[in-house]
Each structure stands twice: as C-alpha cells, then as structure tokens.
Here is the input.
Amino acid sequence: MNARTDPSSGPYQLRKGETVLLLDETLIEEEEGISRAVQPCSKTPFVMEPDEDKLWEYCGPGMSKRIHLYGTVLYDELVGKYRMWYFGRMGPHWRVPAGNYQVPGLYIPRSDERPFHCNGVTADGYGRRFVDNDRGDLTLYAESDDGVNWVKPELGIFTFNGSSANNIIWDLHGASVFIDRAEEDADKRYKAIGFCRRYRGIFLLTSPDGIHWDDSGHLEPVVRRSNEGTFNVTFDRAANLYRAYSIQRFDDRHKRRVICYSESPALTGPWKDSYPVLEPGSWDDEVAYRRYGALRAEFHNLSAFRYGNVHLGLLGVLYVTAEQIPGEKNQIPCDGPIDAQFVYSRDGINWQHADRDRTAALPRGEGEAWDRGMIIGTAKEPVVDGDELHWYYTGCEHTHGEIEMEKRVKRLGRATWRRDRFVALAAASEGMVATKPLILPPGGALEVNADAAGGQLRVELTGPDGRALEGFSREECTPLQTDDMHWRIPLQKIPTGANDPVRIRFYLERSRLYSLTFC
Here is the structure.
C-alpha cells in the first residue's frame, strides 16, 4: 500500500463542474496495484507542407524547407474558422549565394556577417535601430473550415521579391495570439506577443482581424530578451494571469537548454524576470544514454496551459547524441532527436514528469515517416473540440544537427487525444485508488472517465470514519464494464451534511481510470 501525504491541511473543496485529472497525485491518498500509463495520441492523416512555389517556406533548390508551429492554432467563433499563426524561416542570407530575398519592412538582407541594415537603412521609421537580421523569421497565416484542410490565403500585406501574393503577416519568431473579447477598441481585439529578431526583444502587436497587425502602440519591447526561441504565452483564467514559457541556456560548458518561466497580469506587462523552472536532471541524462546512447538531455521547448485542476504541458526533450563539429558548414550546435513528453503542474511553475520512464506522449514517426527525426514544437496550446483535444505540432525528417540544407524539412501535423485521456491510472489485474477527503458540491452526480472494456471498475464512497456510505458501497455499485468517458453515479442520496468530507475509492480490474468530474 502506497500512502501519500498532502502538504495542504483539511479536506479539498471541489467545485461543481470541476474536472480532476488523476495523473495529479495531490488528491490521491492511497494506491495499490496501480501504474501510470502515458497515453499516446492518434495522428490525423493530414500534413501541411512547405510549398515549393512559396519561397518564404521553401527557399529553392539546395535550401531548406521549413515551417514551424512556434505559434497558435485556435477556433475563432468570430469568423467561424480554425485559424493558424505559424512560423516560416527562409534560408538564403549573407552566407548563401543562392539568393537575396526582399521583404521590405521585415526581412533585412545584408552583404556580410555584421552590418545591420535594410538596403543601407539602419533603423525603422520610428527610429528603432536594427540589432539583428537576415535569418528570415516570418509569421505566416492559414485558415480552415474543419481544422484539417488548410488554406494559405494571398493577403497582399507585405511584398516578397516584389510580389504581394503571399500569406506573410509579420516576422515574430513564434506568435502567441489571443482574442481579447473585453477590449473596447475593436481595432485591438486581437493581440499577439513574440520574439522579434530585428530588435531582439519580446514585442506586442494588435489587430482588428488577426491578419493586419500594428506595433505602433507598443514600440518598446514588453520583455527585453537577447535569445530567440519559443516564448509560449497562455492565459490562466483561474488565476487571471498570463504565463510564459521560454528556453534559455545555462552558462556551463554544455550551455544546456532549460525551460524558464515568467508571468504578468497583462500582455503589456509588467512581466517578471524569467527564471528556470524545468531543468534536466541526472535521471534524464540516464534515460538519454539508455534510450539513444546520448551524451545528455536538454529541454528544448514547452507548450503548457491550464486544463481542469492542473497545468498540462508538452515538453520537447532534445537527446544530444553528438556535439557541434568545429568549422563544418551550416553546423548547428548539437545533434540528436527530440521527443515530446507530458509534464504537469498544480501552479504552472513547479513541474513533474508524467512518468519515470519519460514515455513519449506524441511519438516520433517510424520508418520513413515525415516526423521521424524530431517533434520540434507544438502550438502554444491545443484546440478542445467536444470530447477531443487536438494539438498541432511540427515534425521533422531530420535530427537537430542535420548539416545538409535540403534535408532540413519541417512540416505541420495534428495529434489528437480523447478528453482527459493523457495518463491512465492502470491496473493490469486488480488495483485500488483512494482519494483524500473531499467536500463534494451538493446534489449532482459523479462522472467518471474510464476504460473498463477488458475488465470492470467499481466506485465506493466512504465517510470520515472510513466506512462505506449507505447505498455507495463497493458491493452495491453496478460495475462499469465498458469504455465510457461519461459514466455517471448520482450523488443526491449521500447521507452526510453539506460540509462532511467524503473519500472516493475506485476498485479496478484490468481497467484504466483517467478523471472524475462533479456535474
């Protein structure tokens, strides 16, 4: 019997409609015969390709083909469409003689390594000096009626090599997009935040429609930051707080990547200084060696959001199999695959891995699959659609250190989980799970999300003395023997006072338990 103590005191008050993911151990008092089983996603047979006729996505012969979901996918009921703000990255710049692409106002070509200018101009129209350029960071837009078939509209906002027939909308290195329904100014209803290489900082944009963006109201960065990489921002409605997750490097000999955290009451700030909240440990390095013969593990990105009673995240873990080759053309600092693993947190700051085995929740493809090398990034949060949750992601054929430009191919796909089914409390034969004391909402029903198709599941409610409540004993429970996301147990007849604590015991036989909700 494995008993756990709760750092908080007193019974936990559950709210009506609150869903408890049982991957979180906070409300679990006892377990017996139970293991945690990460549930891999299903992948939609849809892949968004970099288009060969769009040189801001496919840079031409001998060059990379790269689009990333450092960005946002959501369903926008204001326009009745799924909308995607993704990230393209052109290859040709001063090191590559194949081209000198021009996107006036955004992309800044240069003739050698150092000068920061756009055709001789060193500052923008507001007097902000360019501090970096020529990497081809471009924010791109797509839309869909069904979330599977996507259109990249010709928007005519910026010209690319003299043509306005493109879907370029800005040049953030990843855009976290929000629809601010409380905004009184309709021209600022949409907001986007992300890293801008031109000035090396985190900037805020506003828009009336999510397509035409303006930074004139926020000329200064809302966060000063020198390094690129994801700056995933989500809004935590329960805390009325914006939370941001980014990568930084430790100042050690490996310059190991870690996940850092910041927060703010508003997108405009003030943002707290970022600090590390997820760092690889010795066990991560041990897994790296055992699984891939790797030198170490690094945490490459985190997309995280509040889900029910916890914060849920997809963590990109880079397993470093080789160091940078000094002097090698087009070399990237290290090589290795990237896996996507579940992590969770009660407060959005202190994180735990879903299982000790570091099981991939969004597995890389097998054989010649388009995502066999890396799951390199996911949208800042998934789209919840009824009893399904869709998380759009970036997959790669290659591993992190690929030096042949034509093999650097990144595409976008979609992973789907059934509601709440991220990590199961599983019993291979017989098992038991008991909650800590709970104060239940009056009336209503207990809804259980479980799969007992191969066995059965029974529920028992006990009072403060540990005795089963009349009518709610294990023996009186008609067992669940199917796969049911909405198995209901009426609670109107519980013979206790409104504030009397209740424990819930689940008895599992060859079954899997995911969550409970009080309806």
The chain has one helix and 35 strands. The first helix runs from residue 282 to 292. The radius of gyration is 25 Å. The first strand starts at residue 2 and ends at 3.
